[in-house]
Every structure is written in structure tokens, then in C-alpha cells.
Design brief:
By secondary structure, the chain is of the alpha+beta class. It has helices at 12-23, 48-56, 63-66, 103-116, 161-166, 233-248, 296-315, 325-349, 354-367, 371-382, 422-425, 436-446, 478-489, and strands at 3-8, 28-32, 45-46, 72-77, 80-86, 99-100, 122-123, 127-132, 137-141, 146-154, 172-188, 197-200, 207-211, 217-222, 253-270, 275-276, 279-281, 287-288, 411-413, 419-421, 430-433, 450-455, 464-466, 472-475. Strand 12 and strand 13 form a beta hairpin.
Length: 490
């Protein structure tokens, strides 16, 4: 066997998965058909839960300082502000901030972490064939070499070669026509407020402007009238230059130097299954949807973290492979909800008929000015609410958190009395908060990949067994911990 796990795709999801597996002591190779890492921004918002995942992977350091703190969205009709949403702390106990930052920088930080863990992506050699049997997967690469791995995970995007070779269906529909996407500098007057995102409703389609690090702006515009076939970046940029003053009503505002431009249509797709034998899918290979709300990279990072600890236990013989079915059971319902929400947001943004525009401009915009709606929006998009309580590893009654719920980033003490945070300890490990007997029971099944912590505030009197992804496994003493581990791991 050349490696325990072959990860196909060195985007944020593949890199996060590889880091997670390595933290758990599993050998990994990462391949990507691209000749070099991407340098364009693509996704540019990381919500609080994504920051938590990066924190637990040891890959968050430095990113908050590079990011832009643009936590408002103001919607205009011409120069008249119609709605302002203020994002903030949803009160769910996180030390990890939401960030406006380029996907390229997130990937670079993950590659740095991966290198510290002893692995570098292998560029310019994509997957062309995969044959699996009862003990592993044989991958044939474009360069003619073969790799024998125990497991393969496709993190190779919407056109996933892994998904196609595994024979997994990817049904869906087209939701919208074309959007223009441009990163560049804005010149002229009036200067836009860089403390938040600005958006304009217009009969020809919405246009938004988000501040990005380095003085750049991300511009996005719905433009069903743009019919160029496979336009060059300069054509896209020139089209944005023409519609920018028309859509915003700001005749003095100009698009200057452009660093990247792209064109996309919104599709909604969800894989029929996340697993076929020894082949699994994560991120855009499993689900694709509109970019509104910044949920794409966020959901993919969650996939990677959820899968990493489960696959590691299976690879190391501490769990039966039935545990891997809980990956789909926990993550696919979330993807379904994200697809539903992003599709609804897309339809609102591109409303073209008189009734649709009336509903958006006169009803929904007014509703979203309400403080409680804004709190709900922050709560919803953060994904800090995500719970697996209804999944096969969750359940139970009584006081929160319940099995499957996310546990906040609690302030804790190590046995020696030194201070720490829960998420800082969950780097390839489980945690027991509380009784030593529960810790001993966990160690009997999990070995040295469990730490004992004491919360600095009351945890309700019961010991908590925390999964490596920050969710509660179970509460109780030795008996409850043993029972949960035996049931979950087989």
C-alpha cells in the first residue's frame, strides 16, 4: 500500500481533509491535475464555523489579521439605502471570527500547515482511472504512474473525475443565467464604504461590491443579457465597466485595474451518495449551489472535518467501516438545506418580473431591516447552529448540549492547571471534560488520542466526551462513554 488515503483535489476541502487525517496519524497523498496552486480569489468569505475548522486544523493563525472586517450589507436603489444587515456574534461561544479573505490565501495557509505535517500536494498529475477491490483502490494517474491506497476521497470539484469513475449520480438543475465576477480596483467619486458590502437592485439585475484585502473590490452582477461565448477576462471586465455606473447610479465610479474576472451560472446539484465502497466524496464534488451567503467553502470544510476523524478510526482499525455511513447521514441533510436556501436567495436576487421585484424591493428588503431578522441571518449563515442530534450518532434528552450538538469553544484548564481553549486541544484528538473515570474509559477505546480538560465554568456536573470536530458524543461517566463508543465504532 502506497498510502492510507489518496486525496484527489488540492483545493480548500482536499487540503483540510489531508491536514485532518495527518493530525490523526493517517498517511496521505494529495494529487491535483492543475499544474500549480490557484492564485485567484474565487470564494472570499469564511464564516465563523469555517474559522473554527481552520483553528482545529492548526491553520487559522495569521488569517484573521489579513482579512477585512466587512460585517454589514447595505442594499440601495440608486443612491437611496433600502436595507442594512449587520453581521455580528450570534452568541454561540466562538473565538473564531468570520473573515473576508481570498480563497487563495486560505488554501496557502492550509498548504503551509500540510507541509508542517510532512506532506506537499503533487501538482500536474490528475486521476484518469480508479479500480477498487476489498482491500483498497488502485489509481492510475495522467503521467502513467499508479498509486495503491486503502481509500480514495474525491475533493475535485463540480466536474469531479472521482465521482464519475465511482459511478455516483449528480442530478440537479440550472437555477440562473450568467453572473459576472470581477476583482479589481474602484476609482472615482464617491468612494464606497469599505466597512461593508454594498448592493444595488436594478431592473436589469443586481450588482454587489464587497471590499477585499489589499484595497481590492469583488464585484458581482447578474447579467442575463451578456451573450458572449467563452469571453476573455478583459471582455468580462469591460462589460462590468459599462454596467457599473448604470446599475449603481454613481456616474463617477469607475472600475480600474482588474486582477481577475470570470463568468458563471448557478446550478443546484447533489450527489446521490457520498460513498461507493472505498471511494468517498467531499465538498463541491458532492454538492454545488449558488455562492450567495458564502456557504460553499464553508460546507466543504465541514465535510472534510467530519470525514477525517471517522476515516482515521476506520483506517487504524479502531472502528468498523459502517462508521463511514454516518458521514453521509450527518452531512448530506445539511447540504440539502444549503442548496434550498441558496436557491431561494438566487431567485430573489435575479427577480425580473414586476411581481418578483415588488416582493423583493418593497417587502423583503423592509423585513430584513428588522433586528431579529438580522440576528437570524447571522446565526443561519454562520453554520454554528449545525447539529447532528437527529443523526445516527446523536439523540438523547435533557439539558443542552445533547449528543450531536456543537460544543462552544470553552475556556478550559489542562490537568496541570494551564489555561487553554477547547478548539485548541481538538487537533486530531478527542476531549473529555470532567470526570477521570470517563477519560479512562475513552482511552481504553481511543488510545492516546484523547485529552482530559476541566472547563473553567460549570459543564452541568456530567463529564462530556467531545468529538474531534467539536460536537458532543455523549455525557456521563465510564458506563455511558463505553456504551457510546461501542455503539458508534462497532
Amino acid at each position: 500500500m502506497d498510502t492510507d488515503v489518496l486525496v484527489v483535489g488540492a483545493g480548500p476541502v482536499g487540503l483540510a481533509l489531508a491536514c485532518g487525517l495527518l493530525q490523526h496519524g493517517v498517511s496521505v497523498r494529495v494529487i491535483d491535475r492543475a499544474p500549480l496552486p490557484a492564485t485567484t480569489s474565487r470564494a472570499n468569505f469564511v464564516h465563523a464555523r469555517g474559522s473554527e475548522v481552520l483553528d482545529r486544523l492548526g491553520a487559522l493563525d495569521g488569517l484573521p489579521q489579513e482579512s477585512v472586517r466587512a460585517m454589514t450589507i447595505t442594499t440601495y436603489a440608486g443612491d437611496r439605502p433600502m436595507m442594512r444587515i449587520r453581521f455580528g456574534d450570534p452568541g454561540l461561544g466562538t473565538a473564531a471570527p468570520p473573515m473576508v479573505i481570498s480563497q487563495a490565501r486560505v488554501e496557502a495557509r492550509l498548504r503551509e500547515r500540510l507541509a508542517v505535517l510532512g506532506v506537499r500536494p503533487e501538482w500536474g498529475d490528475g486521476l484518469v482511472e480508479a479500480r477498487q477491490d476489498g482491500t483498497g483502490v488502485t489509481a492510475v494517474l495522467a503521467g502513467g504512474t499508479t498509486v495503491r491506497a486503502g481509500w480514495m476521497v474525491g475533493c475535485d470539484g463540480t466536474g469531479s473525475t472521482v465521482r464519475k469513475l465511482a459511478g455516483i449520480g449528480f442530478p440537479g438543475v440550472k437555477v440562473s443565467e450568467r453572473f459576472l465576477l470581477v476583482d479589481g480596483h474602484l476609482d472615482g467619486e464617491p468612494a464606497l464604504d469599505r466597512s461593508g458590502t454594498s448592493g444595488w437592485v436594478h431592473a436589469d439585475g443586481m450588482l454587489g461590491a464587497m471590499p477585499m484585502p489589499g484595497g481590492l473590490w469583488r464585484l458581482i452582477a447578474y447579467d442575463a443579457a451578456f451573450h458572449e461565448d467563452k469571453p476573455a477576462e478583459e471582455q468580462i471586465a469591460e462589460r462590468m465597466r459599462r454596467i457599473l455606473p448604470a446599475r449603481t447610479g454613481l456616474s463617477g465610479l469607475r472600475l480600474g485595474e482588474v486582477t481577475w474576472a470570470s463568468l458563471f451560472s448557478v446550478h443546484r446539484r447533489l450527489a446521490d451518495a457520498y460513498r461507493a465502497g472505498r471511494i468517498l466524496l467531499a465538498g463541491d464534488a458532492a454538492h454545488v449551489h449558488a455562492p450567495f451567503g458564502g456557504q460553499g467553502m464553508l460546507t466543504g470544510l465541514g465535510d472534510a472535518e467530519n470525514l477525517a476523524w471517522k476515516l482515521a478510526l476506520v483506517v487504524q482499525g479502531r472502528a468498523g467501516d459502517a462508521l463511514l455511513y454516518t458521514y453521509q447521514a450527518e452531512r448530506r441533510p445539511l447540504a440539502t438545506a444549503v442548496l434550498r436556501g441558496s436557491t431561494a436567495a438566487t431567485k430573489v436576487n435575479i427577480a425580473g418580473g414586476p411581481l418578483g421585484r415588488l416582493l423583493r424591493d418593497q417587502v423583503l428588503l423592509r423585513v430584513f431591516n428588522q433586528a431579529w431578522i438580522q440576528r437570524w441571518t447571522t446565526y443561519s449563515t454562520s453554520q454554528l447552529w449545525v447539529s447532528y442530534r437527529r443523526g445516527p450518532l446523536g439523540g438523547g434528552r435533557g439539558a443542552k448540549p445533547r449528543p450531536g450538538d456543537r460544543v462552544g469553544d470553552l475556556a478550559c484548564e489542562r490537568p496541570d492547571g494551564s489555561r487553554t481553549r477547547l478548539n485548541a486541544e481538538l487537533r486530531g484528538t478527542w476531549a473529555v471534560l470532567g470526570a477521570e473515570v470517563a477519560f479512562d474509559a475513552a482511552r481504553r477505546r481511543l488510545g492516546d488520542r484523547v485529552v482530559r480538560l476541566r472547563p473553567t465554568t460549570s459543564a452541568g456536573g456530567l463529564a462530556l466526551l467531545i468529538r474531534p470536530d467539536g460536537h458532543l458524543a455523549c455525557k456521563g461517566g465510564s458506563t455511558e462513554v463505553t456504551r457510546w463508543l461501542d455503539g458508534a465504532l462497532g
